[in-house]
Design goal:
alpha+beta, 4-stranded antiparallel sheet
């Protein structure tokens, strides 16, 4: 299956199970892999035959920046379901959401989740 990739998308939001996350907010880094048939777009050279990744970015931005979720698992699931509703061509979605600076004592690059969903 062909893929559209959005990597390292950064958004500021207020998601988390800890009080500090809901008050202070933080940056969420999202990687997205959309599985679909890109043959029609490859042949036609028309954006109507693919999924416009700029609009996908905006869909994610709206969910991350304008809503609140306790769990990033729920945030990721909500994003996947929204993308399936908006874009009929998408057959599979792989999403990674990372928090680089959650209020957790320790030394690490990030914490996060990875989901795979399909129609």
């Amino acid at each position: 299956m062909d893929k559209i990739l959005l990597n390292g998308c950064r958004y500021y939001g207020y998601h988390g199970a800890l009080k500090e996350e809901n008050v202070l907010g933080q940056i969420f880094v999202i990687d997205l892999e959309l599985g679909l048939d890109l043959t029609p777009a490859g042949r036609s050279d028309q954006v109507e035959d693919t999924v416009h990744y700029g609009l996908v970015y905006e869909t994610i931005q709206k969910e991350v920046e304008q809503t609140r979720h306790q769990l990033i698992e729920h945030l990721a699931e909500t994003i996947c379901q929204q993308l399936f509703r908006e874009y009929a061509l998408i057959q599979t979605i792989c999403i990674t959401i990372r928090k680089e600076n959650p209020p957790i004592a320790g030394h690490y690059d990030s914490v996060g989740i990875y989901l795979e969903r399909s129609r």
